[in-house]
Write a structure and sequence with these properties.
552 residues, alpha+beta, seven-stranded antiparallel sheet, four-stranded antiparallel sheet, 12 helices, 29% helix, elongated, CRISPR-associated protein Csx10
């Protein structure tokens, strides 16, 4: 067999359910099954191929579409063997890392001895890399509702939930090709580069993935003179002479030359489940199949050593039936099979995944990238940053103004039933001035330096307004009044007036409530805290969006 490996990157959430049922909430698988890839390629190539080629590729069973398992840091992760156990109530990984602990034991090893008065727990989940790192696939759920075709509104009692694999993750899969058909090999290899939609709910916002072929190969199986250990990397199905599915294979079920091999039930760890595939031709489900679950360990006693040719054929061709769906993929005599504590050394022999076309750019190189989209995003980011900075400045100025109101009330011992400081209507006079006379608004609002109130017609007059613009309190630099303090909020450090747009935004906030009363001060404080929280959320969402599109 010629095996072509590829990297699958999830661009959207992928809905690959554990069950084909259409009711209840379905849990998502944590891998991409080979049948999903088979269907995606069939949807793209079926009409382009001849009847003979279509039969050979999709129906004959000569081509195998393997499951896609996760990779992390260019390292392939495979299902944790079911022969691995840990002591009950003990950690499985190191507290600060995702490294499996060294005290995990391999019960398939012939030299393993159970400790007395010790309870062992079988490990039935997660994935493991060659360097004993635990990998978990990120998954989520989305709840939706159906719409009534008659009313166009939400249909009562029509909630449903999609379990999905989260986007932004990478998996490795393979297609085992017929070496005799070179023309079809090239067409399939070319088709394994590009974007597809797989899984359920493809007509919605789910299912988009990108495929990229890679040059890769798993290592050859190692020799073992008296024992054959098979690590089931995918589900395995066996049929006996009467056509019934079973989960206790004999040596001949594995390879015709293993007639004398016998299954060692003591050192084999087999879990099984049933499945029924939908037959689209007949429009119904096939008979239920009982298959060995991935991660199971099959250990066989050998009466004589097995040739490397036989081991190679088992590793390349797989075992059992329905291999076109990815079933029957095994690793022969993995490195951990000879270890009582498998996580102390290399779990299995495996090279890093050579992902091409994903070169990392330096920060300087990224800053100099220029395309119409990138330039537009930069402009939008700059504009959003400016708006946030203005909103923060306005909040700070209003907070300072609230402090002035409180200091004025406290210093003059004003009762809560009385107003103190400029009223809402007085602030609105300034706001109306900014809307109609924008040229000299600063002078008309706060007057000119060196000109007395009686000689000017500006709005913020201290005279004749003892508890409004003229209310006084002890400030940092001595006694000050509200007119002088308010003027400092609307001017820059050099004494010049702030921008007109900033002044309007500031007055829009000030005029919301009656700040001359204690109730108005409380309402404004609540509003400021709410705006501050929303600002933090917007910054967090933007940072999350940037990390998603840059992959950092």
């Amino acid at each position: 067999m010629t095996i072509q490996y590829f990297v699958l990157t999830t661009l959207d959430p992928i809905v690959v359910s554990e069950s084909n049922a259409t009711v209840n909430n379905q849990m998502s698988l944590d891998f991409i099954p080979g049948s999903a890839l088979l269907g995606a390629l069939a949807g793209r190539l079926y009409r382009e191929l001849s009847g003979e080629q279509s039969w050979a590729l999709f129906h004959s069973g000569a081509w195998r579409f393997g499951p896609c398992y996760p990779i992390r840091d260019n390292r392939l992760a495979l299902p944790v063997p079911l022969s691995w156990h840990h002591q009950k109530h003990t950690p499985v990984v190191e507290p600060q890392t995702s490294q499996f602990v060294e005290h995990i034991t391999n019960h398939a090893h012939t030299g393993f001895v159970r400790e007395a008065n010790t309870q062992y727990v079988q490990m039935r989940a997660d994935y493991v890399t060659a360097d004993a790192q635990r990998i978990r696939v990120s998954r989520g759920q989305n709840t939706k509702t159906a719409l009534s075709a008659q009313t166009g509104k939400v249909a009562p009692g029509q909630l449903f939930t999609y379990g999905h694999i989260d986007p932004g993750q990478q998996f490795v899969g393979f297609v085992a090709m017929d070496p005799q058909n070179t023309e079809l090999q090239q067409r399939v290899t070319n088709a394994l580069n590009g974007e597809y939609r797989i899984g359920r709910a493809r007509s919605n916002e789910y299912g988009r993935v990108r495929l990229q072929t890679i040059e890769y190969a798993l290592p050859e199986a190692s020799d073992a003179p008296d024992r054959l250990t098979l690590w089931c990397l995918s589900d395995c199905a066996f049929v006996d002479a009467q056509g019934m599915h079973h989960v206790m294979p004999c040596g001949e079920d594995i390879h015709p030359q293993l007639k004398d091999a016998s299954l060692d039930t003591r050192h084999s760890f087999i879990r099984a489940h049933t499945l029924s595939r939908f037959n689209q031709k007949r429009g119904g489900f096939d008979s239920e199949q009982r298959v060995i679950t991935r991660g199971s360990v099959l250990s066989f006693r050998l009466s004589s050593p097995v040739s490397r040719q036989v081991l190679h054929e088992i590793s390349q061709n797989g075992i059992g039936t329905d291999k076109q769906f990815g079933q029957g993929w095994v690793m022969v005599n993995p490195a951990w099979a000879t270890q009582s504590n498998p996580c102390r050394e290399a779990v299995f022999c495996c090279d890093d995944i050579p992902i091409s076309g994903a070169q990392l750019l330096s920060d300087e190189a990224i800053s100099h990238l220029s395309t119409p989209l990138i330039d537009w995003l930069r402009a939008q980011g700059t504009r959003e940053q400016q708006l946030r900075e203005r909103a923060m400045w306005v909040r700070d100025q209003v907070t300072t103004l609230l402090a002035y109101y409180r200091q004025a009330r406290s210093y003059n011992h004003v009762l809560s039933s009385y107003q103190a400081g400029p009223s809402q209507n007085q602030w609105r006079r300034i706001a109306e001035l900014l809307n109609h006379a924008s040229d000299n608004w600063f002078e008309r609002a706060f007057g000119r330096d060196g000109v007395a109130d009686k000689d000017s017609d500006h709005i913020c007059k201290v005279s004749n307004d003892e508890y409004g613009w003229g209310i006084r309190w002890q400030g940092v630099d001595g006694l000050t009044d509200f007119a002088k303090a308010s003027k400092s909020l609307f001017c820059n450090a050099d004494g010049s007036a702030i921008e007109l747009v900033l002044a309007r935004q500031l007055l829009e906030q000030i005029c919301r409530f009656e700040l001359a009363t204690p109730g108005g001060l409380k309402e404004m404080k609540v509003l400021l805290e709410k705006q501050k929280t929303q600002g933090y959320e917007e910054e967090h969402n933007e940072a999350l969006f940037i990390s998603q599109i840059t992959g950092q």
